[in-house]
Amino acid sequence: MSKQLSTSFQRISLVGLTFGIGIAFGILGVLVFQHFAPQNEHTQESVAESDIGPNSTHRSNSSYSEITADVARFREIFKQDTIAEQYSALHFTLSQATEQELGEWWIESKKIERASHREIAQRVILRNLSAKNPQEAFRRIDDVSILQIDAALRIVFSEWAVLHLENAIQAASTLDRSRRTVALRTILEFRDDLSDVEQHSIASQLESEETFLKLLSDSKISKNIEAPEESWKMLLDDAVDDILQTESLTKVAEAWRAQKGFEVLRNIYLEVEDYSTKVQLLRSITQADPEGALDFVRGLPAGEDQSVLSSLVVQVWARADPQAALATVSTYAPSSLTSDLEREIARTWARTNPKEMIENVEAISPEYRAMPLATAFQYIAREDPLQAIATLGSVEHFVGNTSTLVESIVREWADQEPEIATDWVLENFTREAPERRALLEWVLRSLARENPKRAFELAIEQPSPSTGFGLDYYVMREITQEGEIELAKQLLPRVSEPSKSVVFRDMAAAMVDEGQTSEAVELGQDLEESKQRSYYQSVFASWARSNPKNLMESLEGLPSSTIKSIAAMQLITRNQRNPVFTDDQLDLARTFLNAEDQTSVKRYEDR
Question: Which residues contact 122 (CB under 8 A, 6 or more apart)?
Fold first, then answer.
């Protein structure tokens, strides 16, 4: 009985095994068929509709590896839900690609419209190409978006430095300074197996020893961050400019503050030489607790340290909570420092949050409101000058006369839209209004740069002042400064009498700068004799400054003995400050001086 059961069991097992093997071969056949089936049987639509989700990455990757490069395949890859999955699909697809295929993928990547997808694709292609042929990857750098150049350089040189160091160094030497620094830093970071001497040698070859020294300092600091005072001294005493290691200095200073409080502020102020680095560090440390920083500074002896540090601290605090800063400094001693700090807070508040400052202007002492209000309205006018004007009524009872605020708005407005700002002034202020001239002085300057002829016509239409220059002076000065000399010459005969002498002098200087020296000399003949001397003094002062040798050579040909004397005097006195002539040449120039100018020159030389 047991023998029969055993025989039956063996038969059943054999049948089961045979059946299982059959099923396995059947499945294998299906898989082989699927694998070798022509790809063109799958339409683009069916591919696009395929289910690519977090759990199907492996299935999707296997199909990606079989597809040649085209932009549609990138679109398929970037249907993955997360960036991690997109990277995974790209890595799987490109890891088996040949150098030639990677080149084809690169060409297709440039057709990707979405910038973030294009950057991801190109990073992965570059990394794979760098592993196979870093020199070829290096050639692709200029195809990358300018914002991604540094990242691309790091990818290429991280591989190249390991594969062939000498070639990487040679390639880095061909880059401009900023890119060469990125390449060097990457080489040194990825070849930390090299000795300090070897790394220093590479940095010297690439003319950037500071990069090596900074990395060396950073490495030492990272191992010694628990002793911030020692690390601080190490950073300041190394051969690297402070401005190049601001980040490291900040980290050490923050560690120091965490250990010992705000005493580090004084060390920063006294020991960091570069001013911009000093200010950046002070602000960075203060941001964590501006009130605590101000308490520390209050305890310092009265003097420059306390004054400067207090000012920097309240600047930071005013950006975060200006009203709290104002409330605190009101109790500060001495009172002179209190007023300085209140003004600093108000100025910072006006620049960083002008609308809030205007709404809460009563928080500022009455005597300090005018300047920050003008600044606040100026900042609002940059975005919307009409809104700034409409807001004036809300502060009128705080300041009384708003003319200064109107001027700050109009000045800003004129820089942006001179035509519109000019029209607004003309429409809102009568010819007799005292504010009109002051405002036109600003808007016509800006208008002269955009529409000089209209600016000049408007200027000469305005009433002449009882004293000083006409508005045409300001317009003509802008025209000459813009280099519109020929236009200025055309307008010159129409210049108002109060402005004429000074406009002529400005014109002369501009003409001399343009090399029109003989024309400048001739122009002076149109002036009244009483005004000619000051005019020619201006002409020859400019000429003696810009081309003294040419003026010396031109002395004999000048139109009158008086003009020659003025020119000679300018040459001689100018030579006292900037010697260019021999004694013989100066003696020759003295022969052109009249008695009056000889006396003036002697008085000048005997000072």
Answer: 106, 109, 143, 144, 148, 152
CA torsion, ordered 270, 274, 279, 284, to nearest 10 deg: -90
State how far the Cα of 234 lies from the Cα of 12, in Å rounded to an integer: 83
Contact 187, 175 (CB under 8 A): no
Question: Could you report the per-residue pLDDT of 327-345, keeping only the tens digit for each?
Answer: 999 888 777 789 999 999 9
Distances in Å between the alpha carbon of 588 and those of 21, 209, 363, 514, 548?
119, 55, 70, 27, 14
Please classify residue 44 by burial: count the beta carbons closer than 10 Å to its beta carbon, then call 0-12 exposed, 13-18 middle and 19+ buried: exposed
SS3 172: helix
Residue 553, H or E segment: helix 548-554
Confidence of residue 68 (pLDDT cuts 50, 70, 90): low
In a domain, 373, yes or no: yes
Count: domains in the chain? 1
Query: CA-CA distance, 495 to 440, in Å (whole number)?
Result: 17
For residue 377, being part of any structural domain is answered with: yes
Instruction: Copy the structure tokens of residue 307.
Output: 């004054």
For residue 562, tell me if it sits in a domain: no
The full DSSP string for 201-241 is HHHHHTT-HHHHHHHHHHHHHHHSTTSHHHHHHHHHHSSS-
- 334: cis peptide before it, omega within 30°? yes
Residue with tokens 């009203």: 323
Q: How far apart are CA 555 and CA 532, in angstroms?
A: 17
Beta strands in 272-316 (DSSP E): none
SS (H, E, C) 15-66: HHHHHHHHHHHHHHHHHHHHHHCCHHHCCHHHHHCCCCCCCCHHHHHHHHCC
Rounded Cα distance between 321 and 411, Å, is 29
How far is the C-alpha of 298 from the C-alpha of 301, rounded, in Å? 8
**C-alpha 332: how far from its chain's center?**
37
* 583 domain residue, yes or no: no
Q: Is the dihedral of CA 136, 141, 145, 148 positive or negative?
A: positive
- State the amino acid at position 581 in one-letter form: F
Residue 396 near residue 381, CB atoms below 8 Å: no
CA distances to 19, 20, 27, 168, 586 from 15, in Å = 6, 9, 19, 66, 125
Residue 389: domain span: 353-416
Tell me if 180 sits within 8 A of 172, measured CB to CB.
Answer: yes
pLDDT in tens, 163-195: 999 999 999 999 999 999 999 999 999 999 999
**pTM greater than 0.70:** no
> How much is the average pLDDT of 428-442?
92
Looking at the chain, how many residues does it have?
607
Distance CA 499, CA 492 (A): 10
Angle at 459 between CA 454 and CA 463, to 5 degrees: 145
Output Rg (C-alpha) for the chain, integer angstroms.
39
Q: Which of 347, 351, 340 is nearest to 310 (CA)?
A: 340
> Dihedral (C-alpha) 55, 59, 60, 66: value to the nearest 10 degrees?
170
